[in-house]
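Key result, reporting period 2: structure in, sequence out.
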């Protein structure tokens, strides 16, 4: 990754400095960090009887999608990492009849990541305010929170596979930042 790409990434991500973490969750193997002051957005959803209904949601203005190796650190200790998504919960392991062959990590609250998340992140994220964001020559992302927690995402491919991305919610067609082993998407640099 060249200096121009690093500067582009740093500039795009600078809107997150001082932002509050609103939510941490996963969709499949993708970790999502939702950031910034919540705002209301009206959406249309289909009800069970196939009628359309308007609903107002509170959503964060910025989202990071993490599809590569990552870790959350507190007091120089890894508290949650990528492999936790694929590991069984402590309840699974305590069960004498636990069978690795039947283990399905992709169920709600079905893995160690889901088990650990509420231990460190609850509905109150007020202590999680971004202090500093940095990106290195590989595109690895490091976020330092003012409460001492750190989040790191590592580029884990040499190809064009998406490792992590950043976008503004409801960005009205503006390109979002996608970082891979080859650098960043071309259209974000234009």
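The corresponding designed sequence is given below.
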């Amino acid at each position: 990754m060249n200096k121009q790409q690093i500067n582009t990434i740093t500039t795009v991500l600078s809107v997150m400095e001082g932002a509050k973490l609103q939510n941490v969750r996963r969709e499949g193997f993708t970790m999502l960090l939702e950031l910034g002051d919540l705002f209301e957005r009206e959406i249309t959803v289909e009800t069970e009887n196939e009628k359309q209904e308007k609903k107002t949601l509170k959503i964060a203005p910025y989202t990071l999608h993490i599809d590569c190796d990552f870790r959350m650190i507190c007091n120089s200790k890894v508290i949650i990492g990528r492999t936790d998504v694929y590991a069984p919960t402590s309840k699974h392991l305590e069960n004498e009849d636990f069978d690795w062959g039947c283990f399905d990590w992709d169920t709600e609250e079905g893995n160690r990541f889901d088990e650990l998340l509420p231990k460190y992140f609850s509905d109150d994220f007020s202590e999680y305010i971004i202090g500093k964001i940095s990106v290195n020559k590989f595109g690895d992302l490091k976020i330092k929170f003012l409460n001492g927690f750190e989040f790191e995402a590592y580029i884990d491919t040499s190809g064009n596979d998406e490792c992590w991305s950043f976008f503004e919610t409801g960005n009205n067609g503006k390109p979002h930042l996608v970082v891979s082993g080859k650098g960043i998407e071309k259209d974000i640099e234009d």
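Residues 3-189 form one domain. The chain has four helices and 13 strands. This case is discussed further under Risks and Mitigation.
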